[in-house]
Prior knowledge:
Blueprint: H1 6-15, H2 23-35, H3 38-54, E1 56-57, E2 64-65, H4 71-74, E3 79-86, H5 89-98, E4 103-107, H6 125-133, E5 139-142, H7 148-161, E6 167-170, H8 186-194, E7 197-198
Parallel strand pairs: 3-4, 3-5, 5-6
Antiparallel strand pairs: 1-2, 6-7
Helix pairs in contact: 1-2, 5-8
Amino acid sequence: MLDSIPSFARLVAELAKFPGIGRKTAARMAFYILRQPASEGEALAAAIREVKARIGFCSICFHMTESDPCPFCTDPQRDDSLLCVVEQPQDLLAIERSRSFRGRYHVLHGALSPLDGIGPDQLKIGALMQRLAEGRIREVLVATNFSVEGEATALYLARQARPLGIKVTRLAYGIPLGSDLEFVDEATVNRAVEGRREV
């Protein structure tokens, strides 16, 4: 039925590509966009173009940024000896919202998953090991998700960092197993950071 309106069908198809958005939700979103004034649609399109044009990844920590290096890497108030390793940029933002961590960050852009063909070379682990080899970092807080892949990544990183004499800690298990940091409330993340333990 939507095929009779090609532009609408295309919008629904594009919106359905978002994670967690099925065709029905995409159609609702498309109807909402259609009902809005043209200026609202233009503002949305402009915001998408701008974010794609202006945001890249920090050359040090690989978090998203409009300036390189990012504000987290250039902030003089942060502890250079403490490094938090996360899977995705949204996980970094969850840690920051908790206001419990004042060190530096490193974003892996995924987790180890051999069955999916994701090994250390597909992640930012090589860059992480270079940072650790510089000798300034005394503790690595591994804040990967509490999934099979996240746990495997945490164990792998602990094995790589220990020979360098670096203390490796893990978030406490106040965060439910199988959950993503992005969706956990600030108080729970705060308790997990404060209750971290050595791996």
